[in-house]
Give the backbone structure.
Amino acid sequence: MKITFPHMGTTYIPVKMMLDELNIEAILPPNSNKRTLEIGTKISPEAICVPFKIITGNIIEGIELGANTVFMLTGCGPCRFGIFSCLQEEILKDIGYPVEFITADRFSNYEGLKEFIDRLKEVSESNSTIKIINTIRKGYKMLHEVDELAELTNKIRPREVRKGEVDKKWFNFENEIRKTYGYKAMMNIINKYRYEFNNIEIDQDKDCLKIGLVGEIYTILESYINLYIERKLGNMGIEVVRMASASEFVKEQLDFIPFLKSDKKKIYRAAARYLDIPIGGHAIHTIGNIIRGTNEGFDGFIHLLPFTCMPEIVAGSILPTIEKEQNIPILSLVLDEMTGETGYMTRIEAFIDVVQKRREIKNEGKRLYWN
Amino acid sequence: MKTKIGIPRALFYYEFASLWVNFFSELGLEVIISPKTNKKIINDGTIAAVDDACIPVKIYHGHVINLRNKVDYLFIPRIMGITKKEYICPKFCGLPEMIKYSVKDLPKLINTKIDLMKKDNLLNQMLEVGYIFINDKKRIVEAYHKAKAIYDYEKSKLKLPLVNNTNNVVIMGHPYILSDDYLNMNIKAKLKKAGLNYLLPEMFDDDILTKYAKQYNGKVFWYFFHQMIGTCFYLLEQKLVEGIIYLSSFGCGIDSVVAETVERNIRRNCDIPFMLLTIDEHSGEGGFNTRLEAFIDMLKWRKQNENYISPYGNYLYTR
């Protein structure tokens, strides 16, 4: 059995590691690129959100490399995500790729987690339950490590002395880890690159603007669809903070385990003034994280959402009020397969100018001109 | 003077109209319903609502704007789900917030949570609404039961005893699009005029739809998905109709999945003509009519020429 799975940012690293550890052959599709989107757009429903299109493209590229089974998460909720795998299976059947889907439901209670373990056991008969639990634990750890590494790069990138060093290193990191096999070797590479990133020469006293990325989790994590916004902002000398990450998402799902504490409650409490119940997707996280970030000294937020994303539209309708009441600039960027880079950059640059001026006014007090 | 309560004529009004209206009038309130959708309502709504909302939600904003100066209370329930274990579009759950932050100068909002997903207990939730106005449990319960009886009666009246006459066309889509004749550009009247009978998904019995929805080999966790896929499989088996028109609104998240699934199943399993029409606030009725007329013509020609096999290689449809 050869398993492929779709991309979401850097989550492929722990997923591949887990499959490696369980002795299942994993076929890693190439990172999302223009071709992925083109294939996906061609065979997907017209009005569906762009994550579906890219994921479908990933799966097909995986199949082209020889995979015969697809691993997907599903779920069940107001968001469309839960239905992705059903629809993809149907589409792939129609265009002549009869692959098998292995789906795992969201594991937000003990039964769900047990089902996930059983599913993995079904796939790899030779492994014991203990080994599977151990592998899940390793995967969870690696997810955190990779996310921490990405956070580290976001801190260093705006402050680096020689421009482009972080991007180059990150490129090498991804190249190297793709070719590595197993937990130990992959962990070694992560540790090696953490050391290298920490040794990059940086300008310690540089006063950087701090921008938070909020919104729908896939568009935040998948750099191809947000047109490498972290890299772009970082190279403009701005510290970017992802307000949603895969590790945090998994942590929230595993919240029921007594010793794991996620920020879920804090986020809900912060959002309560504007939206007091979760309505699916990441709408409440968008609101909650903006309120929390405002108190933590962020200069502005960029709200990313795929076109026709239902939960984020509700969040989007609340944002103008928050902008006014909390006195914080927010830029909403709607992403789909038609996003043109120039228009996108113009809006980001204009937004950064606004944030920059606000910072200057705050630092210098009242100016002599323009008032 | 009686307290005035306003109900916007959009979205789930069409599903629950008789229940809400009778409940509030039994409580001694004056119920004001916004007029039928018109050009001004759509324009007001489009300006007020967030850009990428779908047209029914924008129209809802328009109805709220129409009502806001005429009433003391506005009834905008937060509907989490209307059937057991089935979700609905998240925009309904966040509707009170969308209205609150997009429309200015609102009267008091009643946004009680109506959640029939876990506990099938509408009475308790309507009690909560009733207590806002009078502190008399007995009267509220009475009002609820009276209204529920009328509501159930009206629902059952909609159900169609299964007719097997020809010339049937089914119009699929959200109930709030199919019931709003301004929004759906009078599609029902247009079909009637062309000599066709129309059927709607809400005319079929729920039990039948549930039974047929089980044929779909995937999880069905949206109320609307369940209804449409049930209708689709029911039609495939019964061969009741000659054509299927799917009316969807631009940017509808649920339709993007449901319409695709329905279309694929229909195309794969039968030869009934299927047409997907997407509507939005650009009210270009000409293009809509052209496509509808072409579809109707095709249905007629199919029947006329069904057994016509040309003996000498002429084209089938040119005379």
About this structure: Chain A has a mean pLDDT of 87. Chain A touches chain B at residues 45-49, 74, 76-80, 82-83, 86-87, 89-91, 94, 274-275, 277, 279-281, 283, 307-311, 313-318, 320-321, 334 (CB under 8 Å). Strands of chain A lie at 2-4, 25-27, 69-73, 100-104, 209-215, 238-242, 300-306, 330-335.
